[in-house]
Amino acid sequence: MSGECGATVVEFRNVSKRFGAVSAVRELSFAIERGALVTLLGPSGCGKTTTLRLIAGLEHADSGTIRIGGRDVTGLSATERDVSMVFQSYALFPHMTVGENVAYGLVVGGEPRERVRAKVGEVLAMVGLEGFEARLPSELSGGQQQRVAVARALVLEPQVLLFDEPLSNLDAKLRRRVRDEIRELQQRLGLTTVYVTHDQGEALAVSDRIIVMKNAAIAQEGTPRELYERPADLFVADFIGDANLVAAEIRRLEGEFAVVDVGGLELALPHRGFGAGPASVAIRPEALQLSTAAADGAHIRGSVSKAAYLGSHMEYSVESPLGSLFVVDRSVARPIRAGTAVSIRLAGHGVTLVRR
Amino acid sequence: MTRTAALWLAVGWVGYALLPWYAIDGGFWGFDWFSGYPAELASAPGLLAGLTQGRIWLLPIALPLLAPVLVLRAERSDPRLAAVLVAAGALGFGYTLLQGFAIGLNGWSWDSFEALFGPLADRQFGMGYGALLVLAAFLFLFSHGLAARGLVGGDAFVVGSIALIVTLVVLFIFWPISRVLVSAVQDNAGHFAPALFLAKLLHHSVWGLDCFAGSLTCGVAWNSLVLAVLTGLGTTILGLAFALVVTRTGFRAKRTLRILTVLPIITPPFVIGLAVILLFGRSGAITTFLDWAIGIPPSRWVYGLPGVWFAQMLAFTPIAFLVLIGVAEGVSPAMEEAAQTLRADRWRVFTTVSLPLMRPGLANAFLLGFIESLADFGNPMVLGGNFDVLATEIFFAIVGAQHDQGRAAVLSIVLLAFTLSAFYAQRRWLGRRTYVTLTGKGDSGVHARLPERLTWLAYGLAVPWAALTAVIYGMIMFGGFVELWGLKHTLTLRHYIEAFSVEFTQHGILWSGAAWNSFWITLWISAVSAPLTAAVGMLTAYVLVRQRFAGKGAFEFGTMLSFAIPGTVIGVSYILAFNVPPIEITGTGVILVICFIFRNMPVGLRAGIAAMSQLDRSLDEASLTLGAGTFTTVRRVVLPLLKPAMVAALVFSFVRAMTAISAVIFLVSANYDMATSYIIGRVENGDFGLAISYSSVLILVMVVAILLIQAFVGERRLGRRVVGEMSLGGSAA
Questions:
Q1: A143 to chain B, minimum CA–CA distance in Å?
Q2: Residue ranges of the domains in chain A?
Q3: What value of ipTM does the predicted structure carry?
């Protein structure tokens, strides 16, 4: 968690929202600190976009309170909230020029003309689009349109900036560049930002903190590292990165650690509040190390059923007493053929006790 | 209280304490009333009339206008504010309407009130601008109160729009129609008479079947029904032929055929009937030719079912064409291509894939033709002869020698039952998607060609019919230049001079032609009602497409309902509802404007709904999150992007106002005569020359108007502009 964060800017307390019979958000509570970029991450339909729209005021909570900058805004409309949003489709007004689009919020807010012009120029320069004022959105590339959308939201200097899947309309190459630009801008200006995505890689790359959502509620929140290394349950483990879920047995607790038996291998893992008895562990695919050589020391025997070459790494499916395991191996130079018998070891990282 | 709410409160006080409460004889904008203001009752504001003129029942209105003053400083979120606004608005609105209805020209309007409060010596006239402002203020204070309670996301603009539209629809559609229903069960003295109602409803002249027994005529209900079914079938078949020729054959002159679709829009409905008379009447061109060439003696066959049917087919086939061309294009070529790759030949592709997929469209086209035929007043009027239909019988029941309002109301109910059943069937059975968007996204691929046999059949139907239509319109343009049709074929400008002569005198231009009066009135009324119609239609579309609220389904049905109400029924209902206080507007231009707004609103509404559904919702939301209110969002983002739909709505409502006849003929007065009713009058006097020349002038004016509106409202500025233009837009930011 970023240490310099100050006061809470956005606060949800027991917020619920239903659409007809469907619960979109259930009893949601969280807080977002000043200057942080917090990502709402989850599969489609988990309620992350509804949460974002609740912050924006585009949806209204059925119960609970929403505070922005310490002020109760639960009953306020989008117009009255000090929040700007970058839409998935960018929602640039197609009948206005870039300049008019960026100026829109200032003009309807009644700013004097001179100030509007100065600020529009300033913000466009900030996103690297000086001199594009007179263009129409349709005359820009996808990446440029995206930057106009960001500029239009920034120009109002909102307390909170919202991004709704801002990269989903860009091609894969451009995505990383724009992602880094957004993060760089956010950190430079110290903007409090809420960012919605379903792409875990994107979330890990940009976030100070991630809130993983599942079925209209929070599954886990924490820094990217916390979520990756200490997922609370299988859902989080599987959603952020890949994971093999394996049955295990906690033998005993030793201080911070639990001694765990995984298929005959004994490991010391942080106990995370679990007691002795049957348990589950999540194993990252890169934590499984395969070897064809006759093994000595603790290992599990298995055999490779599928092997795929992906350029930077190999992906294997391995049948073993623990079940079918998914393995990633960086050593592309010496691939193992399907059908080969292998011995499996566990690395010192990437293995966690999780709730089922 | 928000600034807008305070503003409405101020408007209410202006209406109550400053403006004349009652409608001014001779018109508000004449400002003749100023001489007696404010002392005379005729021009006194409500407050003064209550204090000094004995209209004490106007005084309680002050209370709900005072209450909101007390909460002027209250916070927006204060629950007391919401409560006061809702209560004051509802009570004020209810009371103001109640006193208007309860006290009319003869004191108490209802016996029960007279029994309760004793006889009343004073009386009052229709409401004027003062009352109008007060009512509007109450309505919007009420909706501000509801919004403050969090209704529809607390958006006062949306709540106000819904309240306004509901009020207008109730006042100008449901209330008049309910008057028809009530007056149907009353005798002409106004007493409840169910037996008389049944007698009129089941009367021989309505449901008689004599035409099967002998040479007598059948009842009007049967006549209307048979005509409507025949017209529905005929127009659907012809429309399908046209649509197939355009979409599925290699026919060359497709663009020319498409012009057909514009014709019914710009043609006053009875003009076709006129042209049919000129061709096939006793002295018509073709009749005369046949007599001369092969000795068929002239007869009166066009006057009756065949003639009316023929004219309606000419008039309404383009409507079916318009619907079916969308349907025929809408069938995905991929389906037809799939069938072809599965070894189906052209005939099988057409009969097993294309035609079944068009079925909903065919049903839709039939129902449209059916409804149009039932509602058609002009053609039966011109060509009917002894063949009476409901639409014309209603008219004669009111204006004819019988002068039987009850009969008119009963016939209206029968007609309404027919059209509403068809409307209901259409909505229920076909759902929303049947109003085919003409610009549906086609996937790439080519429509299958028609089988050979069918191609020739479609050509055989469509081409002669198109030629006939061309001849008819040629007739309309040419007929005005002939001295006396059928008898004296010398070319002359006499009719145009009689209708449109202009003299330049020392006092300026003198519009001495006989048609000028109705011509200017028509232009003026149409020009006023078109933007209002478009505005109401667009606002309704916005509320329907973009907002979620309870009762939306009923709201939509109510707004679309007027589409299914035949003009004659609307005409009768307006006369019944609006010739007595509190809304006393018969004989004015206002009633014509209002009639056009609510007759034509469904057109604007449908155009708006179609266009708005294609507009990404996040555009509105972006505007909202940028701090613009809903009203600003509608004005600056939604409306500019809806320009094409606006053009369509403006054109339609303007042109339909100019060509309308069925409702109008009840509502015109000496001061406000419309072109169409003037022309019908001339036709009844046998003055075909002037009628036809006036009609052709109308058609030309409408073409010009369409082009003007298109140029004025302009294109949406979205696409890539050429480089040279780009510098022009730069200064706007």
A1: 18
A2: 8-234, 243-354
A3: 0.82
